[in-house]
Design a protein that fits this description.
Blueprint lengths: L3 H11 L2 H6 L2 E6 L2 E7 L13 H17 L6 E12 L7 E11 L3 E12 L2 E16 L6
Length: about 140
């Protein structure tokens, strides 16, 4: 079980730096699961008006990382070591939602999955799916 103090830390930690700049927001955090959203702005789109693949990939990767982060103690941080993403259809709409979950947690390696949905008129369409491989790193090795 993950306690409320840890969940609140992860929610605040999630939106630092680039993810905060993009406008990612945490919708849900629980043991092995993390859900985020973003309101699409004009600068998030590419030349044809679709949400840029780079934004979708960043959302999939970062949200998966935090689903993994919910499974470790404060003594560890999480880093991505590999990810693969499939773009299933162009993303357009007012919002994106990313739902990530841990598929497997080993001693140091964690594999998570992200599904990204575009939302229009309260209807969700699956636009991308990613598999993310992450590693647990002792927090003491980071200088913050």
């Amino acid at each position: 079980m993950i306690d409320n103090k840890r969940i609140e830390f992860l929610k605040k930690d999630f939106v630092q730096g680039f993810p905060g700049y993009c406008g990612f927001k945490v919708e849900y955090a629980g043991k092995g699961k993390f859900q985020t959203s973003i309101e699409i702005r004009p600068e998030h789109t590419q030349q044809d008006g679709f949400v840029h693949a780079g934004l979708i990939a960043a959302m999939a990767d970062h949200t998966a990382g935090y689903s993994a982060f919910t499974t470790v103690s404060e003594e560890f941080r999480i880093l991505t070591i590999e990810f693969k993403i499939n773009f299933l259809k162009p993303a357009k709409g007012k919002n994106l939602i990313c739902r990530s979950k841990v598929l497997n947690r080993g001693k140091t390696i964690i594999v998570a999955e992200s599904e990204i949905f575009s939302v229009n008129d309260m209807k969700e369409k699956l636009v991308a799916k990613a598999t993310v491989t992450l590693i647990m790193v002792p927090a003491s090795s980071f200088k913050r």
